[in-house]
Design brief:
By secondary structure, the protein is mostly helical. The chain has helices at 2-5, 16-28, 36-43, 47-53, 55-60, 72-77, 80-94, 97-102, 110-121, 125-140, 150-158, 212-227, and strands at 178-180, 198-200. It has two domains: 2-141; 178-227, no CATH class. It has a two-stranded antiparallel sheet.
Length: 230
């Protein structure tokens, strides 16, 4: 069953995210034995999935031997300085010359690579995509392209700078209330009669882009018309 999941020719089809996750584990500590239980715990998946989708690819790439023991290649694999050499060794061991010639490096056309795997393995679309992704990852052979852990990606998203809010429009302060004394009642002759003062509150809305001269003219006009009533 596991061989069928790898395609008729048995090319590696491990998800690239699992490849990078295991490499991080191996950089921390190389296990004495890679079992389905170890893979299930390390990759947060079921043991059956680990048995069918991960173990066969690790054996084919000789990261582990047939008994699950990490090989000398596993030691080199986790070393950034030797990573590209390990990837090239795997490519030369597992893939035929026609594919190596068709897609010799990371600039290869993915559609062509997928077509090659589809024609040479008879696998379905999903499996073909996995095999092509794995092969192109080996072509890239760049440890700096290691898939980012989900937690780190979430942290980077949370740390993204917030967009600055637009500055509020300038506001013109309200003028102070203008006290206007009413005219003396008719017939009073300007005598001793007393009229109470009248306070009028005037509220003015002035555009924020009005010039200083325009604002001065507004207040001058107000003063002129209001004081005519005195």
């Amino acid at each position: 069953m596991a061989e069928e999941k790898e395609g008729r020719k048995g090319y590696p089809s491990m998800p690239t995210t699992s490849w990078w996750a295991l490499r991080r584990r191996f950089r921390s500590t190389i296990p004495k034995e890679v079992t389905t239980n170890y893979l299930a715990s390390a990759l947060n998946m079921g043991e059956e999935s680990a048995r069918n989708n991960i173990l066969p690819s690790l054996r084919k790439t000789k990261i582990i031997d047939k008994d699950g023991k990490p090989t000398d290649r596993a030691v080199k694999w986790r070393d950034d300085a030797q990573y590209s050499k390990v990837c090239e060794e795997i490519r030369q061991e597992l893939y035929p010359n026609d594919l190596l010639d068709l897609a010799p490096d990371a600039t290869a056309d993915r559609d062509q690579v997928e077509t090659w795997f589809a024609n040479h393995t008879g696998a379905g679309t999903s499996m073909v995509s996995k095999m092509a992704s794995f092969y192109l990852m080996l072509c890239q052979a760049d440890p700096t392209k290691e898939a980012e852990p989900a937690s780190a990606a979430a942290g980077a998203k949370a740390a993204a700078p917030r967009r600055e809010r637009a500055a509020p429009a300038a506001r013109v302060p309200r003028p102070a209330p203008v006290a206007v004394a009413p005219a003396a009642p008719a017939g009073s002759g300007g005598g001793k009669g007393f009229a109470p003062a009248l306070n009028i509150n005037v509220e003015i809305h002035i555009s924020a882009d009005a010039s200083a001269d325009q604002i001065d003219q507004i207040f001058a006009s107000m003063a002129k018309h209001l004081r005519q009533q005195t």
